[in-house]
Structures are given as C-alpha cells and as structure tokens.
Amino acid sequence: MIKEAELNTLLKRNQAFAEHYKTSPLMQLINNPEMAQKKARECLLDCIQTFSNYFQKTVMLRYVFCDNLRFLNVIQEHLQEEFAHNFSLDADRNHRLPEWDAILEATAGWFTWKMFTLDQEEKTVLLHLVMETSANIFFQEAHKIMQKYSETNYFKIHSEADEKHEKMGIELLQNLSSEKYQRLLEIQYQGWDMLNAVCDRMATLTKHHVKKNAVVEYAT
C-alpha cells in the first residue's frame, strides 16, 4: 500500500505539472492571433524542428542503451512509433535550416544527454511523464490551430499518438523502493523544469521574430 501511494504521489504531481504547463508561454502563443502570420509559424516550426531532432536522438539512445527485457518492449514500441518524425517535419519545411540558438540547443540537448546517465525507471519518467505528457497537451491544442494552414502533417501525427505514449511504461514504475520514488520525484521536477525552459525559449524566439518582422514591414 505504501508503494502504491508513492506511485500515486508521482502521478498526481505529474498532473499538477501538466496543469501548470497548460498556461505556459508556448501554450498561450499557439492560441495567439499572431499565429496567423506565416513568418510566426515558420519560426515556431524551426524551433520545433530543433527539439524534434534532439527528441529522435533521445528515444534512439534510450533503445541503444537498454538490454533489460523488462523495459525493452515498451522502449522498442515507442521508438518504432516515433522514428523519423523529425525527417517528415523537415520535408514539410522544405529542408529549411533552423537558426542556431544557444539556449534552445542546450535545453533540448539536456534530454538527450540524460539517456547516458539515468537508469531505466528514471528514463521512463523523463520520456513519458514529462516529454510525452507535455507533447500530448501541446499537439492536441496546436493541431486545432495549425491544421487550417495545411503546411505540415506533424501536428496531426502527434495529436493522435502522444496520449498513448504518455501512458506507456507506467506499470514499470510499480513496486519500487521509497528511495527510488524519491529519486523519480527529483528527475520529474528537473525534467519539467527543463521542458518548460525549452518551450519558453521557443515562445520567446517566435515572439521576437514576429516583432522584428513587424518593424521591417513598418519601415518599408
């Protein structure tokens, strides 16, 4: 019963993080009328491309460094369903090279680096409770806005798959020690903190691009 309560604490706290994410700058941005501007959408898609590239590396490294059969089925299924989504987005963007941004690179790359240092339970929390939970929230909302422009199928794919991915592997977090649950709470906090940093940077870069474009248009 104690272990079940500790897992419930982890999941309930995840719900709280998710609710907070719903009011994040990125979520506010996707519902902003400024998204009607093509330049704003292009900038946001560039940022998402950078994060998507790192996400692919993250799920691939998770698979490469797992020889625990208890986790492998979930990890392999997740990889198969996510594989090459970044390439489809790149094609939809006509292979436009995203602008390099130090903060976006550093925060997005943090998740990839953690595949070298975390154990399997910790990776499960980071991939599913943090990354896929936030993705499910974002893409469900973003698809409603972006589908009318018919510029990419990327949002539709994720709006349909990420709810399932959010729940994958939760059974693998059952019956752990109290010390392990404490560690998972730490990783959960760090993961959401970094995820919010990534998404806040996407919103900042897009807003900056919109303002810069408005100045140029006014000047001309």
Series of secondary-structure elements, N-terminal to C-terminal: HHHHHHHHH
The average pLDDT is 90
Radius of gyration from the alpha-carbon trace, in angstroms: 18 Å
Main sheet makeup: none
Describe this structure in words.
The chain has 220 residues and is an all-alpha fold. The chain contains nine helices and no strands. α7 (120-146) runs antiparallel to α8.
What descriptors fit this protein?
220 residues, mainly alpha, 9 helices
In short:
With 220 residues, the chain is an all-alpha fold. The protein has helices spanning 2-21, 25-30, 38-64, 69-82, 85-92, 102-117, 120-146, 154-167, 178-219.
Element layout with pairings:
Layout lengths: L1 H20 L3 H6 L7 H27 L4 H14 L2 H8 L9 H16 L2 H27 L7 H14 L10 H42 L1
